[in-house]
Amino acid sequence: MVLENGFIRAEINAKGAELSSLKRIQEGYEYLWGADPAYWAKTSPVLFPIVGALKDNRYYYDDEKYQMLRHGFARDHFFEGSQLSDNEAVFVLKDTEETRIQYPFAFQLSLKYAVRDYSLRCTYEVHNPSKDSSLLFSIGGHPAFAVGGSERNPLYEDHYLEFPDDEELRCHVIDQNLISDRTEVIALNRHRLPLKHDLFDHDALVLKTLKSQTITLGNRVDNHGIHFRHEGFSYFGIWAAKDADFVCLEPWCGIADSIHHNQRLEDKEGIQYLEARGTWTRSWEVACF
């Protein structure tokens, strides 16, 4: 499905309701990663109903054991899409017998995309259709933005991330996909983090105390980049596959299990509780320049 408004053009796939392209129309400049399977074959998956990994890929709820792989299952399912206008669309996924094998909850997950001027906004809406039971879930974004590459100038190392309200990044170190007890502090230079491939040698930078609600991806050579705005997300991840020419900016409501977690879903850090018949929303937005 295509959204465009004369300034930018966005393409969204029904599988995973995944944003697959984001271009400025005048220059044809592509802001999203091209999903090269040699590195990472995704562009912007939604992480639901968990973010990150479960300890042993397992959790317990109501004394029952369930198995689920990292980041949940929504990204691998086809959503029902509806184009509301030239510049707005919604994609919906509901629970099925198949999803209840992994996740024993009724749910309706909607991803709404809208373009306005040079910006794209993605809204997650989770609805609990149950009459009497809470819905427990986590959710997050994983958009990958193109950085450098053989056909691009500037290069990867010419780029930076700017955090206007942070002097440093306190990162929680990942140990075999789980959150360990260790933290590392990355000092920022005038609020900027220079990008280099070895930043992600030990997996994502996981942040629990990020202050900046707008992050700028820019470079020292030309005037292309993005302002990435996120509100109401308790956690944030930054990641790239080894030697790949992209960076993921990941707002999360939820986080991977810690190495000490008891594997009970109701005790999981960052888990969201949604009351019966309730609806929950969060949004992130990309402004292209």
Structural account:
With 289 residues, this protein is mostly beta strands. Helix content is 2%, strand content 45%. The strands form five sheets. The protein has a nine-stranded antiparallel beta sheet, with no helix packed on it. Strands 12, 13, 15, 16, 18, 21 and 22 form a seven-stranded antiparallel beta sheet that branches. The protein has a four-stranded antiparallel beta sheet with strand order 1-2-3-4, with no helix packed on it. The model has no long low-confidence stretch (mean pLDDT 96).
Question: Which terms summarize this structure?
Answer:
single chain, mainly beta, 9-stranded antiparallel β-sheet, 289 residues, Beta-galactosidase, Chain A, domain 5, 7-stranded antiparallel β-sheet
Write the layout of secondary structure elements.
Elements: E1 2-4, E2 8-13, E3 18-24, E4 29-30, E5 58-61, E6 64-67, E7 80-85, E8 88-94, H1 97-102, E9 108-116, E10 119-127, E11 135-137, E12 139-140, E13 144-146, E14 159-162, E15 168-175, E16 178-187, E17 192-194, E18 205-207, E19 214-219, E20 226-231, E21 235-239, E22 246-253, E23 272-274, E24 279-288
Antiparallel strand pairs: 1-2, 2-3, 3-4, 5-6, 7-8, 8-9, 9-10, 10-24, 11-23, 12-22, 13-22, 14-17, 14-19, 15-16, 15-18, 18-21, 19-20, 20-24, 21-22
